[in-house]
Amino acid sequence: MTVTILTLFPGLFQGYLESSILARAISRGLVGVKVVDIRSFAVDKHHVCDDAAYGGGPGMVMKPEPIAAALEGTTAPGARVVYLTPAGRPFTQRTALDLAHGPDFTLLCGRYEGIDQRVIDSFVTDEISIGDYVLSGGETAAMVVVDSVARLVPGVITGESLQEESFSEGLLEYPHYTRPEEFRGMRVPEVLLSGHHEKIRQWRLLKSVEKTERYRPELLDSEDLSSEARDLARQIRKEGDGHGRDEVT
Ligand code: ADE
Could you tell me the distance, in angstroms and rounded to a whole number, from the CA of residue 214 to the centre of ligand 1? Predict the structure, then answer.
């Protein structure tokens, strides 16, 4: 799978692509990342890529010609072109899975107030936001997308790790512990030392549901939740209401 990134700041990606899991995936040929400087497609003497907005208002808009030329020079007609913008559809693990299983795609990073709408209308297939906040540009968002997609490409990380993630799908992850068994008076929960796989699975599920109830309670209303997780959520909520399991039985 090859991801092409169109940006006005290609240097931002260097350190990131040379580190960690992503660097290994690239060196093993599992993932290819091509970083393309949009400015090199601007034909005027000063390689200008931005201009004032029609209709007035503060800030500059990215000009359409260099972006169109960059897309036409790097991306096959009909290929998926994802524009990173706070005004896009929320990015989720499902989007990452979808991109990881699909063909090559291009990420288009906006700067300033954004890009000329006519480029979006002509080339962009998806508009994606990584969260309800405004970044200085789409580059950090592109790194988030590349990272989360690359680790889902077969062979990049072990199937076991991915399976563990899909087990906790729809819930926040349970807490993790490593050696030593006791750290500053705090012991690792006994169940994790027991070697009892089923009890460990149940404990982790309970912790996942508890954490989800605390930070993302709306996720517990999803239809996709397993019946086991749903039952645990119901119990936890009952306890939270002051009608705990022990009191009602
Ligand atoms: N560009 C600026 N803010 C962004 C966001 N939240 N998501 C994606 N691209 C962006």
Answer: 27
CATH class of residue range 164-239: mainly alpha
Distance between Cα 111 and ligand 1 center (Å): 9
pTM, whole model, 2 decimals?
0.92
Residue 187: phi, psi to the nearest 5?
-95, 150
Q: Identify the residues whose C-beta falls under 6 Å from ligand 1.
A: 84-86, 110, 129-131, 133-135, 138, 141
Domains of the chain, residue spans: 2-158, 164-239
| Nearest-angstrom CA–CA distance, 164 and 65 | 46
Residue with CA closest to ligand 1 atom 4 = 86
pLDDT digits (tens), the chain, 249 positions: 999 999 999 999 999 999 889 999 999 999 999 999 999 999 999 999 999 999 999 999 999 999 999 999 999 999 999 999 999 999 999 999 999 998 999 999 999 899 999 999 999 999 999 999 999 999 999 999 999 999 999 999 988 778 777 666 799 999 999 999 999 999 999 999 999 999 999 999 999 999 999 999 999 999 999 999 999 999 999 998 865 444 444
Ligand 1, residue 128: give the atom nearest the CA: 8
**CA–CA distance from 249 to each of 62, 226, 233, 234, 241 (Å)?**
65, 25, 18, 15, 15
Instruction: Assign domain 2-158 to a CATH class.
Output: alpha beta
